[in-house]
TrEMBL record:
It is found in: Cytoplasm. It comes from the Bacteria. Keywords: Cytoplasm, Molybdenum cofactor biosynthesis. Required for formate dehydrogenase (FDH) activity. Acts as a sulfur carrier protein that transfers sulfur from IscS to the molybdenum cofactor prior to its insertion into FDH. The active site is at C94. Belongs to the FdhD family. HAMAP family: FdhD (MF_00187). Pfam families: FdhD-NarQ. It comes from Rhodoferax lithotrophicus. This is Sulfur carrier protein FdhD. PANTHER family: FORMATE DEHYDROGENASE (PTHR30592), SULFUR CARRIER PROTEIN FDHD (PTHR30592:SF4).
Amino acid sequence: MFNELGTYDTVSIPAERALTVYVDKRELVTLMTLGAHPELLVLGFLRNQRLVASVDEVESITVDWEVGAAAVKTRQGISDIEARTAKRVVTTGCGQGSVFGDLMAEVDSIELPAATLLQSELYGLVNAIRLQETTYKSAGSVHGCALFRGAEMLVFVEDVGRHNALDTIAGWMWMQDGQYMSGADKVFYTTGRLTSEMVIKSAQMGVPIVVSRSGITEMGLDVAQRLGLCAIGRATNKRFLCFSGAHRLTMQPELVGSPAFQATQAG
């Protein structure tokens, strides 16, 4: 392929795959994904769709890339699965994400834990993302999501859509130490915009602080405010906008422009 100068370049292109999910032999949905962590993606998808409430409900997840299918076997089946999946909302997620049922049905029942984030920790996690080796840097065309404890990156996932990356992290949290990892002291980061879907899923994971290098939608902001969730957007270098939940962000004005902060941004 050639560029704007008419010279030829060699570039990397991410491989997008279709993965059809079957639950107890019933076709549920087809996910478009890079396919790096398919079992975690499927597990997190089921969790964030509120189709399973515990990892113990899932007996096995078998992925066969030759036929592009993931077979989920539950221990006792999913009650009323046809009624619960009858209503489907096509979201603004890249690749057209889908959410089953009413997006807002359980929002008001979610209670987020008390948690705060230091401004220095926010800068630290943004810097960690900047230094992370990513598919995006070499090929573009993907979104990245990460889970942090303070400025410590616990897991980083890239996929075609940010909703897939988020679901994969939800699946990863569920597999830690045989129980669902608490989101109480965690921060969720995404390269994509904070839509209502992203805010709701973060809240369902128990994560009270979300950070994006992009912006937020009106509905995403409304949900974040209702939940008391701290939504931070436009986070690049030392710039950011705190859209909601400002009580969760501990400001440190002395950091901006300080030699110590400048050192973290160098190189």
